[in-house]
Amino acid sequence: MASIDQELYDYILENSGNITSKWFTAKSDFDGSFYSNNPNPEIDQVLLEQHALTIRTVAYAFLEEENGFQEQLLLWAETVAKSRIEHNTPIHDVIQALNKTRETIWFYVEHFANDHLDEVNNTHILKWSRLFNTAFDQLIHSFSSRYYELSNNRLNAQQDLINELSIPIIPILDGVGVLPVIGEIDTTRARSLLEDVPYKCVEVGINKLFIDISSVTFMDTMVANEMFHLIDVLQLLGIKTSLSGIRPEVAQASIQLGVDFGNISTFSSLKQALLRTGVYVQR
Fold first, then answer.
1. Which residue, 99, 192, 206, 231, shows the most beta carbons closer than 10 Å to its own?
2. Residue 1: exposed, middle, or buried by beta-carbon count in 10 A (0-12, 13-18, 19+)?
């Protein structure tokens, strides 16, 4: 004969559809648009499937088979975290939905206990409460951890793309390239320039590089030093470097900071740099 724990497990799974229906009725009151106001029917299908997975995972805890529960927990956390990342769902909205799921499943646990008063005593109720709440605590912890990892991975990938796009070496002739530097240059970005530009120049086969900073509005001493180091490294690699587009305010600030551009080929504009070095002949 099956134990009362097994009976509870079976009862929760048998009522999975009812639990999900009750949860779906309540989700219209949730704060997050992913749950409450999403008009996409495919999202509802995703929620149906994942809510069923949540119920199976929590129900497994009543069997006290730790290895089986942990396997189910990892599958659940990976599935739900990937889905919520994909749909840019805030983590607090997910936790709100999980808390409603916790409340809904426990309603059915109470219903089961009331239907089995001759078999269920206080010891069973206390044990189920402990297993149930521990399971949900683990769900929230596992989800949050995986959500954080996936978010970080996405942010790092986006930052790598931003860094790649922010250092665009554009070949214009064989061996000749232009590096337009756009936006503010902070210490981190200046260091990225120092680390990445020499490799890209060698990779593309650049031996003459024009660095245009006409869109740079501010340059402090540390950033200027990084730029000087970059030009020194390029020269050691045999890459002739010119600097163009230094704005008046940047030039004035550089003089006040004691930054000396005297040893660097500088031009007022990229066009002038290309003309004066013979790369471009005006017709």
1. 206
2. exposed
- Regarding pTM above 0.85, the answer is no
pLDDT for position 1: 40
What is the C-alpha separation between 43 and 63, in angstroms, rounded?
31
> Which regions of the chain are under pLDDT 50?
1
What SS3 class is residue 214?
Answer: strand
Distance CA 170, CA 39 (A): 44
> What pLDDT shows up at residue 213?
86
pLDDT confidence of residue 166: 63
Distance CA 28, CA 35 (A): 7
As a 3-state breakdown, the chain gives helix, strand, coil percent values, each rounded to 5, of 65, 10, 25
| Rounded alpha-carbon distances, angstroms, from residue 175 to 116, 131, 231, 277, 282 | 83, 68, 17, 14, 20
